[in-house]
Amino acid sequence: MGRYENVIIISPDLGKEEEEELLKRIRTNIEKAGGNIVKMDDWQVRRLAYSIKKKDRGHYFFILFDIEEGNLTGLGKFYKNIDAVLRHMFVRVDDDEKGPDKPPEQVVFDELEGEFA
């Protein structure tokens, strides 16, 4: 079993109840795949570096969990079948990883506009 960080970006247009239902489905699916959730954090709505599915903002969630590597494919397919999930990413980390203490700082893209023109 390995430990993985999973960052999920969901549509900011979801209502609070829809968002909670989606997170419940995600938790349940991880557990059904044999995973054990170590930590789950809400990183709030942030501006995206580029538009995804015509959205310029996304609601970020961080999940740290233990799971067999072979079961990640099923989780990836699960995320791809949910329209509200804009992006997801799995990263293998050390087995003693505890995850970040606080969410990363937000980047202000307005300051960068025109820099690369």
Description:
The chain is α+β, with helices and mostly antiparallel strands and 117 residues long. Helix content is 22%, strand content 41%. It contains two helices and four strands, in the order βαββαβ. The chain has helices at 16-32, 72-80; strands at 2-10, 36-52, 55-67, 85-93. Strands 2-3-1-4 form a four-stranded antiparallel beta sheet. A hairpin with a 2-residue loop joins strand 2 and strand 3. It is globular and about 35 Å long. The N and C termini lie far apart (46 Å).
Summed up:
The chain is α+β, with helices and mostly antiparallel strands and 117 residues long. The chain is built from 2 helices and 4 strands; from the N terminus they run E-H-E-E-H-E.
Spatial ordering of strands, largest sheet: 2-3-1-4
Outline: globular
How many DSSP E strands? 4
The total of helices stands at 2
Helicity range of the residues? 10-25%
What radius of gyration results from the CA coordinates?
Answer: 15 Å
Structural class: alpha+beta
Largest sheet: 4 strands, antiparallel
Average of pLDDT: 87
Determine the N-to-C terminus distance.
46 Å
Which ranges are low-confidence, i.e. pLDDT below 50, for 5 or more consecutive residues? Answer: none
Topology pattern, helix = H, strand = E: EHEEHE
β-strand percent reads: 35-45%
